[in-house]
Specification:
Elements (H helix, E strand, L loop, with lengths): L69 E2 L4 H9 L3 H13 L2 E6 L5 E3 L9 H6 L4 E5 L4 H8 L2 H5 L2 H27 L3 E2 L2 E2 L2 E2 L5 E2 L5 E4 L2 E4 L3 H10 L2 E3 L1 H17 L1 H7 L6 E2 L22 E2 L3 E2 L7 H8 L8 E6 L8 E8 L1 H10 L2 H18 L6 H16 L1 H4 L1 E5 L3 E4 H10 L5 E5 L4 H20 L14
Parallel strand pairs: 2-4, 5-11
Antiparallel strand pairs: 1-2, 3-4, 6-7, 8-11, 9-10, 10-12, 13-14, 15-16, 15-19, 16-17, 17-18
């Protein structure tokens, strides 16, 4: 079963690369990951000073190895001092960072504030990332108020840094798993189906979202009144969609699961949830908008625009397995066959799969492996081949599909549900179609989702601290 009339996207021209050390707060600190190490070495993420501020002269190198900073207790004093130096808006940013998992800690043995982001995407949970020493800000115990105020003005940079994005990706991974499991259950119950003609998949594009939670405007659909109820309706009511719309619904549903019903309604207006044919919703904020590459500087949440082109699988693999969760793209036949596309959302990946992606060339390597698997599969069907030779080739195909990049990267594809990547590849091999390639949607949508989350969280925090208007006196006298 495959998605009819899915958009055929060429390989996204990826201008990839991570921030270079010293290039600003987005750079990951160079953290060692030796087994059993409790805390990474104190390599600081540089923070750019405000524009126009004088730069400090560089500290001369010391001939003596620096002594690692030691954390002192209690830590609330320096954190309270930091908060006291901030305006309400920057205090909101501070609380947001703590919500993500950052800890602001007093330390001795250092002269400057040190930001130790670590590698949160290499940890299975946020708690594990914190236990490994990630997401820490070390503040000198004798820091001046002026330094604290200056640092506070740079907190928005920290919120947009790679470690902060990684911390949020942990939440997104949980939300993506919940959303896709619910959508897959709706498909399994035959409520949420792929377009059909009689009992066969339809070759024509069709969309019939749940009623009355969705309403039609011309040739596109918006959520009606409540964005949260529009998502919940896909879980519980009858609906028809092909895989491109189903992918977009899954992305919105993932945000819904992260935020919850009330917050999601506050963050996303009904018209933000727009679904329809790809070319009709191309310029909406949360379409794949590949023609709006300048809309956000980051692609697939982490990838920055640089002259160096790198496979996105390699970039995400370097960050760690959590970085794959929530990313989406399209599986296509390498011969660009017409009825051959599957739009997917990555639900999870293991550390082994991420490392294989990093070490062997990313999604390009996946395509190369499917070429070999298809060659073996076709030759095993040769009726004149000896039985033992056929058996060896079948076993070789199974070994390819058992590799972590196929068996340990789990994706959501409508209407198949939540399945290993290798299952979709195996289906295509059985039909003797061309080898596949995977193109990640490297646009600004992932970062747009993050910014919507961040800004709405801070807005809610600020709103909760606004003074309440006194209750109006009752009309008339006693």
């Amino acid at each position: 079963m495959s998605c009819s009339r899915s958009i055929r996207l060429g390989a996204c021209a990826l201008l990839l690369g991570l921030l270079l050390p010293g290039g600003g707060l987005g750079a990951l600190s160079a953290v060692a990951d030796e087994p059993g190490s409790q805390l990474p070495p104190p390599v600081q993420i540089p923070i750019s000073p405000p524009r126009g501020a004088p730069e400090r002269p560089p500290t001369p190198p010391s001939a003596v190895a620096p002594t690692p900073p030691s954390v002192v207790a209690p830590t609330k004093d320096v954190r309270a001092r930091l908060a006291a130096q901030l305006t309400l808006q920057y205090r909101g940013e501070l609380h947001y960072l703590e919500h993500l998992g950052w800890r602001f800690t007093s330390a001795t043995g250092i002269d400057d504030i040190q930001v130790l982001g670590g590698r949160p995407c290499r940890r299975d949970t946020l708690r594990a990332a914190q236990a490994a020493g990630d997401l820490r800000v070390l503040i000198p115990a004798n820091v001046s108020d002026e330094t604290l105020r200056d640092f506070g003005k740079r907190l928005p940079q920290l919120s947009s840094s790679m470690p902060s994005l990684a911390a949020w990706n942990h939440r997104l991974a949980i939300g993506t798993q919940r959303a896709t499991e619910k959508l897959a259950a709706a498909s399994e119950a035959d409520r949420y189906i792929f377009p059909r003609v009689l009992v066969l998949d339809s070759p024509w594009w069709q969309l019939d979202p749940p009623q009355p939670e969705w309403e039609k405007f011309g040739k596109i659909w918006h959520a009606r009144e409540s964005s949260a109820r529009a998502i919940e309706a896909f879980y519980t009511k009858e609906a028809v969609a092909e895989c491109y719309v189903a992918q977009l619904v899954a992305l919105f549903a993932s945000q819904y699961e992260v935020m919850g019903s009330r917050w999601f309604d506050e963050a996303y207006a009904p018209k933000d949830l727009t679904i329809g044919r790809p070319h009709l919703i191309e310029f909406t904020p949360f379409s794949w908008n590949s023609k709006r590459q300048g809309y956000h500087s980051r692609r697939a949440l982490y990838i920055l625009q640089t002259p160096e082109e790198r496979d996105p699988g390699v970039v995400l693999g370097e960050l760690g397995h959590i970085a794959f969760a929530g990313k989406c793209g399209i599986i296509q036949n390498q011969d660009d066959g017409y009825f051959c596309n599957e739009n997917f959302v990555i639900v999870s990946a293991t550390a082994r799969a991420a490392e294989e992606m990093r070490a062997k060339g990313g999604f390009k390597y996946v395509g190369e492996q499917t070429v070999e698997a298809l060659r073996l599969h076709k030759s095993s069907k040769n009726l004149l081949a000896p039985g033992d030779e056929v058996f060896r080739k079948e076993q070789a195909v199974e070994r390819i599909l058992a590799a972590p990049i196929f068996s340990e990267i789990v994706i959501y594809v409508h209407p198949f549900g939540v399945v290993p990547l290798g299952k979709i590849v195996g289906k295509k091999l059985k039909h003797k179609t061309a080898a596949i390639e995977i193109n990640l949607y490297c646009c600004g949508r992932d970062y747009a989702f993050y910014e919507r989350y961040r800004m709405s969280w801070i807005r809610r925090w600020l709103t909760a601290r606004q003074p309440k208007a006194p209750a109006a006196a009752p009309a008339g006298g006693s």
